[in-house]
Specification:
Blueprint: H1 25-30, E1 32-33, E2 48-53, E3 59-65, E4 73-77, E5 81-82, H2 88-96, E6 100-104, H3 121-135, E7 143-148, H4 150-161, E8 166-170, H5 175-182, H6 189-206, H7 208-211, E9 219-224, H8 233-241, E10 246-251, H9 259-263, H10 265-282, E11 288-299, E12 302-311, E13 320-327, E14 333-340, E15 345-351, E16 357-362, E17 366-368, E18 374-376, H11 380-398, E19 402-408, E20 411-417, H12 420-429, H13 441-453, H14 459-469, E21 481-484, E22 487-490, H15 495-510, H16 514-527, H17 539-543
Parallel strand pairs: 1-5, 4-6, 4-7, 7-8, 8-9, 9-10
Antiparallel strand pairs: 2-3, 3-6, 11-12, 12-15, 13-14, 13-16, 17-18, 19-20, 21-22
Length: about 575
């Protein structure tokens, strides 16, 4: 990716490619739309399709989730990639909390008309706001705006220029500074024209450092501290520009959106929806106040910060879980977890840097830990995801990996080769599929298949691992989706799994279990990536297979060690 892609590509969802034309070379590099549409039914959602015009008279399209007795409506400004349907997991979280939601695709994205243009984005967002107010008949004070990554800038702009009840953003960035950092050193004439327009017109109108002081409603700022795409320090700087009540949630252990929604979906949902309900109802926020009193330097790499914490309401009947985050301008963070009874306190925290800021946040879902603090009380899904991450990490620590070169004509790839001890460990520690969340099972299937494919020198163990993949294979691969660090995976595809299932199908056919072989081959066709060299099978050839049929060897030349 060229550096210039990052100016407005602070994206939530980086999936797919597009054939949509851009109106200028800058937009072509900045914006990454996708015409693939996530099926709302896969998330048990049934939205009403909507459309409206932007200032350029282009038709923008999206979804309306009308929840009966909802206290407010949340207008969502999407990230820089995909389309509005990629924001359905966020809609699911808000709808589950009883909030109505509107999603829309920018011009040139998804089902929306027109050419891509960074210049059209502010107008697109304003048109969506006007639609929510005028066509859906919502009182501005009952409207919440939610923006993610690129959409965070648009959401804050809407809140600065329109009456709204509340605004929440995740992974905010500063266009003025990003543009200086990544602008081409020798821009073409067309690029100079667009960059001039951005600097003169767009950035002053949308940069949060300029618009922040104009916001009058409550604000929620969220950012994963492991975000490598957009620094969390931007969120801290925006907080300093706000004059309205603002809550800051720096998410420990999380990267760029939409990863935080998966890592702790229960807390994310409660924080986001709880903020909108509180802010639109009370027009203010119940805030924890934390301040750094002193910082004592013990050594060059050890500091002790003395922190005081107060609360506007000290009548709490029982201790509440609180996250304390110490930070500095260089983007270093240290966290403390405590139970607090609401009374003014002073405590000390040892850190490895000199902190200059502190943020305190009450947590919704926590359980007491052995050290007297608390641990996140994860949902079954997030807990299953954590278990998978631990299994994968431990499995790779067991592995002694070598690489095997695979050649076919002028195409070369490398596949991982594992030891017998690694495969045995993977089998012994593999969880019961029934204990794994259905949305996490496909990840185990792909991982086990990679292990199996890398045990080509141990045929019996390879076959056993291949068989153990089967309970984890998704029944409907086309409905699978996964959220990651600045990524959205739509549909389940895996070269290693396609290879091991094909091999199992060949063995089934040799053992006269034709129906099982056909079922496996149909699954292969649904999960094999488009760029993989395919065996000579189709839906038609599968139907006529019989005990006399012979399947050719599977040649997944494009299935490199990194594919899954």
């Amino acid at each position: 990716m060229k550096p210039i892609h990052l100016i407005l590509a602070a994206l939530t969802l980086l999936a797919g490619t597009s054939t949509v034309q851009a109106s200028d070379p800058i937009s072509k590099n900045f914006l990454f739309p996708d015409k693939l549409i996530v099926d709302a039914a896969a998330l048990d959602l049934s939205p009403r399709l909507i459309e409206f015009k932007n200032p350029a008279n282009m038709t923008l399209r999206g979804y309306h989730f009308d929840v009966e007795s909802s206290p407010s409506l949340i207008l969502v400004c999407m990230g820089n990639s995909g389309n509005a349907s990629y924001m359905l997991p966020y809609a699911r979280a808000l709808v589950d909390e009883g909030l109505s939601v509107v999603l829309f695709s920018y011009q040139g994205f998804g089902r929306s008309d027109g050419e891509l243009s960074v210049m059209s984005l502010p107008g697109d967002a304003q048109a969506a706001y006007n639609f929510v107010v005028n066509e859906l008949n919502n009182d501005p004070k009952d409207i919440g705006i939610f923006g993610v990554s690129l959409g965070s800038v648009l959401a804050l702009t809407l809140a600065a220029t329109n009456p709204v009840g509340a605004v929440a953003v995740e992974d905010v960035f500063l266009p003025s500074e990003m543009l200086k950092m990544v602008a081409p050193k020798e821009p073409t004439f067309a690029e100079r024209m667009i960059l001039g327009g951005l600097n003169a017109v767009i950035i002053p109108a949308v940069d949060p450092l300029f618009t922040g002081p104009k916001i009058k409603c409550p604000v929620l700022l969220m950012h994963g501290v492991r975000d490598q795409l957009l620094p969390p320090t931007s969120t801290m700087r925006v907080k300093e520009k706000l004059t309205s009540p603002a809550r800051v949630w720096l998410m420990q252990g999380a990267g760029h959106a939409p990863e935080p929604l998966d890592k702790n979906d229960r807390e994310y949902q409660s924080q986001l929806a709880g903020f909108f309900k509180e802010a639109t109802k009370t027009k203010t926020l119940d805030l924890l106040q934390a301040n750094i009193e002193t910082v004592e330097e013990k050594t060059k790499k050890k500091f002790t910060a003395k922190v005081t914490m107060t609360h506007s309401d000290s009548s709490s009947s029982s201790p509440i879980p609180v996250q304390i985050c110490l930070a500095n301008e260089q983007g270093k963070f240290a966290f403390a977890r405590m139970w607090w009874d609401g009374k003014d306190i002073t405590f000390e925290k040892d850190v490895s840097f000199r902190p200059t800021r502190v943020f305190a946040l009450s947590v919704h879902h926590a359980k007491k830990s052995e050290d007297g603090g608390w641990d996140p009380d994860l949902s079954p899904f997030s807990l299953s995801l954590q278990d998978f991450s631990d299994y994968r990490t431990q499995a790779m620590r067991q592995a002694k990996i070598e690489y095997k070169k695979v050649e076919q004509g002028n195409r070369i790839s490398w596949t991982r080769q594992y030891t017998k001890a690694h495969g045995t460990w993977a089998l012994r520690k593999l969880p019961d599929p029934e204990t794994v969340h259905p949305r996490i099972r496909p990840r185990y299937a792909a991982l086990l298949a990679d292990f199996a494919r890398g045990l080509s020198q141990h045929e019996t163990l390879r076959l056993t691992l291949s068989e153990r993949c089967l309970p984890f294979v998704p029944e409907h691969p086309e409905q699978y989706y996964a959220l990651g660090n600045a990524s959205f995976t739509l549909g389940f595809k895996s070269s290693p799994l396609a290879e091991v299932l094909y091999d199992l199908a060949r063995r089934r056919l040799e053992n006269d279990t034709v129906d099982d072989a056909k079922a496996l081959l149909k699954t292969v066709l649904r999960i094999i990536p488009q760029n993989i060299a395919r065996p000579e099978i189709t839906e038609e050839t599968i139907e006529v297979l019989n005990t006399e049929s012979k399947l050719p060897e599977y040649q997944a030349i494009a299935g490199s060690a990194s594919s899954r």
